[in-house]
Amino acid sequence: MILPKCFVTGGSGLLGSYLIRQLLAKGYAVRALYRKTKPALLSPEELDRVEWVEGDILDVVLLREQLQDIGDLYHCAGMVSFNPARREAMRAINVDGTANLVNAALDAGIRKMVHVSSVSALGRKRDHATIAEDVKWDDEANLSAYGKTKYEAELEVWRGISEGLSAVIVNPTIILGWGNWHQGSSAMFRNAFDEFPWYTDGSSGFVDARDVAEIMVSLMESNLEAERFILSAENKPYREVFAAMARGFHKKEAGRRASPWMGQLVWRIEKLKSMLSGKDPLLTKETAETAQMHVYYNTEKIHKALPGIRFRPLDESIADFCAQYLVKKP
Q: Are 15 and 207 within 8 A, CB to CB?
């Protein structure tokens, strides 16, 4: 059987890198879009097997050209920011960029698309609530600019589906993997390595990047379409996650509880520092509130859709990635 050629956006990002590795392992030909640097995760041999295209999803002409001979489209590119100052840039990349890609995919007649969204697109996080795919978005109750852009990006995919595009959407929780530990979810590992002393009372869902990549390929290879799926290995308190990372690095665990009022004070200080320096704040009002919430995610739907899937235990994933970070700190 001749496998369809794949196009991956966000090829140099955390998830995009793991996805490319998974596709290459299964024998797919891969063309990947990257902006500045190629992924450090991939070996020289893997890098050589990929057809790399430098550019971004705001370049409509480039997308139309690069999708002409593509069968399977994986959309991993996106901007994650909780800084209100980056609202417009985030909307351009997450919403306009997805609209561009959907339009190009329809014009090119691709076979199928897998779109990477986020659990942030499912609505405002509800404290001590369990979230499933059928939760309804309430625009007035959702103050997250990032969540809103991911929700609006999903609407672009649903528009494409209504116009004949075969597509599925995945909503991962916090993705853990070996990546640039100066940004995104990978920064959690750096904080644990640096023995950051504070922890919060909140909890969330976490998932291994390898599992997300494998499930994306399985969904692409399936007959499933016009569906979205929450991808999460376990719901765990942040304190337990940071403790597991500290153990993996043989470092001291965080032992000082950050109360809600402390978070409220710190984000205000960070906002002032950001206004003076022009740099992103380390903490925002949104992240301060989220860190105190207990949110749980239901994954029954993906287990029913793909009965054979298995999520790696979170402690196992964290131990694996800590070992990799100890060998090479990106």
A: no
Residue at token pair 């909503």: 171
CATH number at residue 300: 3.40.50.720
Contact 114, 75 (CB under 8 A): yes
147 within 8 A of 78, measured Cβ to Cβ: no
CA 22 to CA 110: how far, in whole Å?
A: 20
Length of the chain: 330
Q: Which helix (H) or strand (E) holds 243?
A: helix 238-249
Cα separations (Å) of 297 from 239, 243, 253, 269, 325? Answer: 18, 21, 26, 32, 28
- What pLDDT is attached to residue 312? 97
Helix (H, G, I), strand (E, B) or coil at 174: strand
Q: What is the mean pLDDT of the chain?
A: 90
What phi, psi does 137 have (nearest 5°)?
-75, 130
What 3-state DSSP class applies to 5? coil
Residue-by-residue DSSP string for 261-318: HHHHHHHHHHHHHHHHH-SPPSS-HHHHHHTT-BEEE--HHHHHHSTT--PPPHHHHH
* Tokens of residue 39, six digits: 């992924």
Q: What is the number of structural domains in the chain?
A: 1
Residue 308 belongs to what domain range? Answer: 6-180+204-235+296-313
pLDDT tens column, 77-132? 999 887 777 889 999 999 999 999 999 999 999 999 999 999 989 876 666 778 89
Identify the H or E element spanning 247. helix 238-249
